[in-house]
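Lab notes, practical 5.
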Amino acid sequence: MKKRNVEQVEEPIRCPECSSTNLAYDEARGELVCQECGLVIEQGMIDQGPEWRAFDMEQGQKRARTGAPMTYTIHDKGLSTTIGWKNKDSYGKSIPTKNRAQLYRLRKWQRRIRVSNATERNLAFALGELDRMASGMGLPRTVRETAAMIYRKAVNKNLIRGRSIEGVVAAALYAACRQEKVPRTLDEIANSSRVTRKEIGRTYRFMTRQLKLRLLPTAPQDYVSRFCSELKLSGEAQSRAMEMLKEATDKELTSGRGPTGVAAAAIYVASILSNERRTQREVADVAGVTEVTIRNRYKELIEKLDIDVEL
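Output from the prediction step:
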C-alpha cells in the first residue's frame, strides 16, 4: 500500500469511524483504507498513475492502461469481454485439468450470450459483411464507422424489413463514401457485394429519404487523386487535371455530366500535357467509363477551355 500524503491538505481526511488521519491508498483495489480500524472510506478510485512517454507504437501498447476504443463496426461496440483460449488464470498459472471442462463451457456460453437476440444477430452478420466489402475496396476506418452508424439507424427505424441485409449494407457503404468525400461508383460497390447495381441504387434512394441524409452530388475533383494514383501519374498531372476541372466547373461545363467521365477526360488531357501520355483505354478501365465518353468529354474541355493539345 502507498500512504497518502495528508500533511499537504489543509483539512486532512479523517476516518469517520475512529477519526484517525492514518490513511492508506490501496493501488490494487482502488480503495482508501484507514490503517487504524480497517474501514474502507472510499472505493472505485481512479489511479492517475505516473506520467510516462512512449517513443514508438510498441512502447505505447505495452504501457497503455486502457482497452480498445469503442467502435460501431462491431455489433456490441467492442465493449464485451472474451475468455482467452489459454488455459491460464489471471496470475499466469495453468488451470488444473479437472477445471478445464468447466472453462470450456464458460467460453461456449460467453460466445453465445454475446449475440442474445435477433437484432444483435442481424448486426453481427451485417457488420461482418460491411467489413468484408470495405476491406476489399480499401476504404479507410472513418468510412466504415460512418457506414456502420447509417446501418444502425436503418435498423432502429425498421427499414431492413423486406430488403436483403447485403443490399442495405451496400447502400449504407455507398452513402458513407459520399458523406466522407471518398466516393465510389455504384458499379464498384456492386462488384464488392453480392447484390446488383440496380438494387443498391433503389435501396440507397429509399434510405436517404427515410433517414433524411443530406448528401451533396459528387464532384469530378473527388475522383482525380484516386484515378491518378491507379494510373501512376505524377503530382504535376494531378494538379493540371484539378486546375482544368476547377475552370470547367466555373464555366458550368460539368453540370449534367457524369463526374467520373469528366474526371477521366481531364486526367487524359493532363497526362498528354505532362508528357505522361496514357491511352483512352487505360483511363477508361480505371474510371469505369467507356472510351466514347472520354472522347466526347475531352473534346468539350479542350474546345471550351481553349487548350492546345497535340493528339
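Observations recorded by the TA: The chain has three domains: 1-66, 72-88+98-216, 221-304. Strands lie at 2-3, 23-26, 31-34, 40-42.
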